[in-house]
TrEMBL record:
GO terms for molecular function: carbohydrate derivative binding; DNA binding; DNA-binding transcription factor activity. PANTHER family: GLUCOKINASE, RPIR-FAMILY TRANSCRIPTIONAL REGULATOR. SUPFAM superfamilies: Homeodomain-like (SSF46689), SIS domain (SSF53697). This is MurR/RpiR family transcriptional regulator. It comes from Cryobacterium luteum. The lineage of its organism: Bacteria, Bacillati, Actinomycetota, Actinomycetes, Micrococcales. InterPro entries: Homeodomain-like_sf, HTH_RpiR, RpiR-like, SIS_dom, SIS_dom_sf, WH-like_DNA-bd_sf. GO terms for biological process: carbohydrate derivative metabolic process.
Length: 279
């Protein structure tokens, strides 16, 4: 049970001084990994003994164990933070910028060995492309499917809301491609899904953060995408950048055919009056 839930469960039994510390912790969970007991006592206006007593009441031995607990929560993708943690201060914005730049630098470094081009070629030459995303990976899969639809004649999203995924995999084979997003806090059956794709001989492009590396052994292409963040939530800005590069690479593999398809799509937009005029 994470520290926030532990506080919620026992809040009514805490002394007023302990509640002051608990309130501060809940409002600054994103910083909890760097505070020691003395700093928490000073910032919340209580004694160090009160902080230590609260930690023991919550089931922790000391502040070091609390810091380790906070780091573990964040590394697993759990959002940590609270209404008291300001996101718009100059220092927070600077930390956010530095984190985004570092994520992008690491992503591009990972792509220098040609794996991005390999994934783009697989997608461009596939008979069918199935893009799969569950939970927090679903919006990313949806966006990639939309971009690839400009280039590929047969690309679909799986699973559709409320549907199972077996129908989308049946009939696929070595001449098709499955693009699987698997960012952390994945569903329990994610490993089984990756194995099912591989056992059917379907080339797999796996896009995920480093925590999914254990599922990458049988993938045709493994695209590792950092999502670390200085804020309460994981950042998917780098993942969206990767989607841009991947779709652009697939488009470049068949330039003439792609231009013809885009022209046809644009004509349908106009026939249906689907898009707002750009002028």
């Amino acid at each position: 049970m994470n520290i926030g839930k532990r506080i919620d469960r026992s809040y009514g039994e805490l002394t007023p001084q302990e509640q002051r510390v608990a309130d501060f912790i809940l409002d600054h969970l994103s910083d909890l990994a760097v505070y020691n007991a003395s700093e928490l006592a000073r910032l919340s206006g209580v004694s160090k003994a009160t902080v230590s007593r609260l930690f023991r009441r919550l089931g922790f031995q000391d502040s070091a164990e609390v810091r380790d607990h906070a780091r573990t929560l964040r590394s697993h993708g759990a959002p940590v933070g609270g209404p008291g943690a300001s996101a718009g201060t100059p220092s927070r914005l600077a930390a956010h910028l530095a984190g985004e730049q570092e994520n992008l630098r690491r992503l591009l470094q990972n792509l220098e060995d040609g794996r991005l081009d390999a994934a783009a070629r697989l997608i461009a030459h596939a008979g069918n492309v199935v893009v799969i995303g569950l939970r927090n990976s679903y919006p990313l899969a949806l966006h990639l499917r939309q971009q690839l639809a400009q280039t590929c004649h047969s690309v679909r999203l799986a699973p559709l809301p409320g549907q199972s995924i077996g129908e989308d995999l049946a009939g696929l084979g070595p001449h098709d491609v499955a693009v699987l997003f698997g960012f952390r806090r994945r569903t329990a059956g994610f490993g089984q899904l990756a194995l099912a794709i591989q056992r059917r001989g379907i080339p797999l492009v796996l896009i995920a953060d480093s925590s999914a590396r254990k599922h990458a052994d049988g993938a045709a292409v493994w695209l590792e995408c950092p999502i670390d963040s200085a804020s309460a939530f994981d950042s998917y800005a780098t993942a969206m950048s990767l989607i841009n590069l991947l779709a652009t690479g697939a488009m470049g593999a068949h330039v003439r055919e792609t231009r013809t398809r885009i022209a046809a799509i644009t004509q349908v937009y106009e026939d249906l009056d689907e898009l707002e005029a750009p002028w």
